[in-house]
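The instructor's notes for this session suggest beginning with a concrete chain rather than abstract definitions. Hand out the sequence below and ask the class to guess, before any prediction is shown, which regions might be ordered.
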Amino acid sequence: MSEEVGELAREINHIYGPKKKKADEETREMADEMGDIFFTLICLANSHNIDLDEVMNRVLEKSRVRDKDRYEKI
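After discussion, reveal the predicted structure:
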């Protein structure tokens, strides 16, 4: 997981940060790196019998309650 997140961080740094790619460095897509992270996370969750749908619903509800007054209503 750390390796996959590191690869995404490198891509973000190449795009937005001061460290640009070397001429001979392979081009990778941020979306592909995010997909690798999802895949790794799903495998980890499955190996520990963690229901990611349940976890995501809890996180979204926590954020909804915590941030209910954070943004201006339209």
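Then share the key points. The helical segments are 2-16, 30-47, 52-66. The chain has one domain: 2-66.
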